């Protein structure tokens, strides 16, 4: 995003005093990782950045309804970590100070297959940080809010992007604030980082423009996650485990990664379309690290969740850019992702079920 903005600046005129400001206000819809990063990248080029987030945001790391996948594993690979640290200098150090676990790739990673066991380790000189999605977002929010011209507005539900009177672009964003009152923020730029791009599609309808064609790609993956305490005396041979499938005997992928507060987050995934539960760890061949942790997972899970994705949809063509509206990433899973609701499970040791 930062490079894209700088490229755009080459076509703008210098303002008095050598200013490269593109406008007075930019509005970003959504305070997820994409929205926060976009706001940070835009901050040097606008007098004011407003981030509108539907959810109420806590002062501590915690799951929220706007990111239902945040109960499942997330990790910042080296490239993503560098990019965020460029936008928010000090982000990497702040995330590590908040408890994220550094993992050397692949020195601290155990790749394993049930048929051959652990694969040889290699040190690629690359480091990543493992943390839960809520912690990553919390540190990003703190970094964004520390920038003087960025304002984060939680409990602000966007109801529409307001078209300009001449229909050639947009005027701003209409939203309902935390008090239930409707407001309009005028903006020179609106970025839809809401995840499913519903505001952008509604705007296209209002302008009488065609929606982009969609291409459906069958994925049909199921996965289940559990969080457990790292047991005292756990091995120091690795920090993260990737268990690869052994078809046709074993079709599961599994990951066990460290997170803040001395915990492991474990996910098991299945591509067969039959569904998966965390209990399926028992079906991994004994001798691989993740299977050896099946019993502790059954005895003392701190939290578990399950999710299934049916076919994903992608735009069949690029959405032509037009004045005052931008999208930071291709739309994914818009209207095609099926989320199985999580309900209380009455059985001992289980918190959620599909």
Protein architecture, described:
It is a single chain. With 354 residues, this protein is of the alpha+beta class. 19% of the residues lie in helices and 31% in strands. It contains 8 helices and 22 strands. The strands form 6 sheets. Strands 6-5-15-16-17-14-18 form a 7-stranded mixed beta sheet, with no helix packed on it. Helix 2 runs parallel beside helix 5 (133-145).
In brief, what are we looking at here?
The chain is of the alpha+beta class and 354 residues long. It has helices at 2-9, 33-42, 78-87, 91-97, 133-145, 198-207, 289-292, 294-299, and strands spanning 23-29, 46-52, 75-76, 101-105, 109-113, 117-118, 126-130, 150-153, 157-163, 170-176, 182-186, 189-192, 214-217, 221-229, 240-243, 252-259, 263-270, 303-309, 312-315, 325-326, 343-344, 352-353. The protein contains eight helices and 22 strands.
Beta fraction of the residues? 25-35%
Secondary structure category: alpha+beta
Mean pLDDT: 78
CATH topology of the largest domain: FAD/NAD(P)-binding domain
Number of strands: 22
Strand order of the largest sheet: 6-5-15-16-17-14-18
Number of domains: 2
Overall, the morphology is: globular
**Overall radius of gyration:** 22 Å
What percent of residues adopt helix (DSSP H or I)? 10-25%
CATH domain class name of the largest domain:
Alpha Beta
What are the segments in which pLDDT stays under 50 over at least 5 consecutive residues? 309-354
CATH architecture of the largest domain: 3-Layer(bba) Sandwich
Number of helices: 8
Distance between the termini: 37 Å
């Amino acid at each position: 995003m930062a490079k894209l903005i700088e490229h755009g600046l080459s076509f703008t005129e210098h303002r008095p005093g050598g200013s490269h400001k593109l406008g007075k206000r930019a509005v970003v819809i959504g305070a997820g990782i994409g929205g926060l990063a976009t706001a940070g990248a835009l901050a040097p080029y606008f007098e004011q950045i407003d981030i509108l987030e539907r959810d109420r945001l806590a002062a501590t790391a915690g799951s929220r309804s706007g990111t239902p996948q945040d109960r499942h594993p997330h990790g910042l690979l080296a490239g993503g970590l560098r990019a965020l640290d460029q936008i928010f200098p000090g982000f990497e150090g702040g995330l590590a100070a908040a408890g994220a676990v550094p993992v050397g790739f692949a020195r601290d990673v155990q790749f394993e297959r049930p048929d051959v066991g652990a694969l040889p380790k290699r040190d690629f000189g690359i480091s990543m940080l493992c943390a839960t999605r809520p912690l990553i977002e919390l540190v990003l929010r703190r970094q964004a809010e520390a920038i003087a011209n960025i304002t984060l507005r939680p409990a602000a539900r966007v109801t529409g992007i307001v078209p300009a009177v001449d229909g050639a672009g947009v005027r701003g964003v209409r939203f309902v604030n935390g008090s239930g009152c409707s407001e309009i923020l005028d903006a020179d730029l609106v970025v839809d980082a809401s995840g499913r791009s519903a505001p952008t599609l509604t705007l296209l309808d209002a302008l009488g423009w065609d929606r982009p064609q969609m291409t459906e790609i069958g994925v049909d993956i199921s996965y289940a996650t559990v969080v457990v305490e790292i047991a005292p005396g756990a091995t120091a041979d690795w920090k993260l485990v990737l268990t690869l499938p052994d078809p046709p005997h074993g079709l599961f992928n599994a990951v066990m990664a460290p997170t803040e507060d001395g915990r492991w987050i474990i996910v098991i995934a299945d591509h067969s379309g039959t569904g998966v539960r965390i209990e399926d760890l028992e079906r991994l061949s004994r001798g691989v690290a993740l299977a050896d942790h099946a019993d502790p997972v059954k005895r003392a899970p701190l939290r578990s969740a399950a999710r299934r994705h049916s076919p994903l949809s992608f735009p069949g063509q690029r959405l032509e850019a037009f004045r005052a509206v931008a999208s930071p990433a291709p739309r994914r899973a818009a209207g095609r992702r099926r989320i199985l609701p999580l309900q209380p499970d009455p059985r001992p040791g289980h918190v959620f079920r599909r």
